Amino acid sequence: xxxxxxxxxxxxxxxxxxxxxxxxxxxxxxxxxxxxxxxxxxxxxxxxxxxxxxxxxxxxxxxxxxxxxxxxxxx
Length: 75
Description:
52% of the residues lie in helices and 0% in strands.
């Protein structure tokens, strides 16, 4: 006895895995940025006696685009 069930078409996912990895990297940077804020030489919500002026250049580099990146990948 033969089955007359038509084969279902293959459904392709519209998911972009590169965007998933960009989202993971953006949230990783978010975590590292906020850890860096504790040790930065300026005042923040959480302060410590140790400050590292070396954090100024990388944090200044991240500041202009970090929120835009988070909004773009979280939608």
